[in-house]
Design a protein that fits this description.
Strand content: 25-35%
Order of helices and strands: HEHHEEHEHEEHEEEEHHHHEEEEE
Structural class: alpha+beta
Bound molecules: biotin
Distance between the termini: 57 Å
Largest sheet: 7 strands, mixed
Number of strands: 15
Shape: elongated
Length: 324
């Protein structure tokens, strides 16, 4: 029995109250054990009222991810069946990579309240204060190495779908790794690959979503280009509900990717905000401008140049210059 079990039962109680004896009976432990866990929950910031003839009632919860509430009845087949939770890490991607090396199962999810050294793309840092979502999932897809970039597309489809379903915010995908709301970034994805020449060993799919953080936590140069889900909805977003939806969407789209990759590309196309726009893509070889036309079978962006020719870009930073 853990603190999470008690929280789950208190939240599920229709009257709001559950006596120490009821809790003890449901969990098969002593009333003293229940009382100890209630005290531990109070130390974590939960407020629990104790009324002599009625029992315990949860009156306030801190904005914390409670692993037991994330996984209870989740019903996923692969993603999130193992959940590793840490109040603070350097980077969930780094911890996930270590766990993957040590043999962690396909779909293992690593989640943290805060990161002290969150990693962004292209060696950048990712600011990861309390109130956001920092998640990394270990994936071991049966894919040839050249198709590994499709995992990023799959992750973006899952994030945009989960944000829409859990909050109603109209999230869109900017190729390759960003999720935007009304032109502002709300989430970034960082996919790190461990592969042999012909097959993927494992992939760490890192997802950082700006949920409830104060935008003032960001350096001023990022603020204009960045938004949070709480800013978009005008209220505090339930991060546990969002994370549950995200794990379910990842589970669904990860399966789809391995069975029918074209269906992932189709979903991506329906959710993207890049195609049809005039864009500049800057990468290692410089910057190229053109109309974003399509995503090819390996997840590359197909650009139509002014000259009428086409190029496929595998990686880079996209600036949307003009909508179609
Ligand atoms: C980007 O937009 O540059 C990608 C940002 C990815 C951030 C996430 S937060 C969870 C995971 N752990 C990390 O260290 N990075 C990713």
């Amino acid at each position: 029995m853990s603190k999470d079990d008690i929280l789950r039962l208190l939240r599920a109680s229709t009257s709001g109250y559950l006596s120490g004896a009821e809790l003890a009976g449901k969990l098969g432990v002593s009333r003293t054990a229940v009382w100890k866990q209630i005290k531990a929950l109070e130390r974590d910031g939960f407020r629990i009222e104790a009324v002599p003839s009625k029992g315990y009632r949860l009156t306030a919860s801190p904005d914390l991810i409670v692993p037991g509430e994330v996984t209870a009845g989740l019903g996923t087949r692969v993603v999130g069946r193992e959940l590793v939770y840490r109040p603070e890490v350097v980077s969930t991607n780094m911890l996930a990579a270590e766990l993957a090396q040590a043999g962690a199962a396909d779909g293992t999810a690593v989640v943290a309240e805060t990161q002290t050294g969150g990693k962004g793309r292209l060696g950048r840092t990712w600011i990861s204060p309390a109130g956001n979502l920092a998640l990394s999932v270990i994936l071991r897809p049966a894919l040839p190495t050249h198709q590994a970039p499709l995992v990023t597309l799959m992750g973006a489809v899952a994030v945009a779908s989960a944000v829409r379903a859990a909050t109603g915010v109209p999230a869109g995908i900017k190729w390759p790794n960003d999720i935007l709301v009304n032109g502002r970034k709300v989430c970034g994805l960082l996919t790190e690959l461990s592969a042999e020449p012909d097959r993927v060993r494992h992939i760490v799919l890192g997802i950082g979503i700006n949920v409830n953080m104060d935008r003032l936590a960001l350096p001023s140069e990022f603020r204009e280009r960045t938004t949070t889900l709480s800013a978009e909805t005008g209220g505090t977003v339930d991060r546990i509900a969002l994370l549950r939806e995200l794990l379910r969407q990842l589970d669904r789209w990860y399966r789809t990717l391995q069975e029918d990759a074209a269906a992932v590309r189709e979903a991506w196309t329906g959710l993207n905000v890049t195609l049809g726009a005039w864009v500049a893509v800057s990468g290692i070889g410089g910057t190229v401008e053109g109309t974003a036309r399509a995503i090819d079978a390996e997840g590359r962006l197909v650009l139509v140049l002014d000259s009428g020719g086409t190029v496929q870009v595998a990686a880079g930073d996209v600036t949307i210059i003009k909508k179609a």
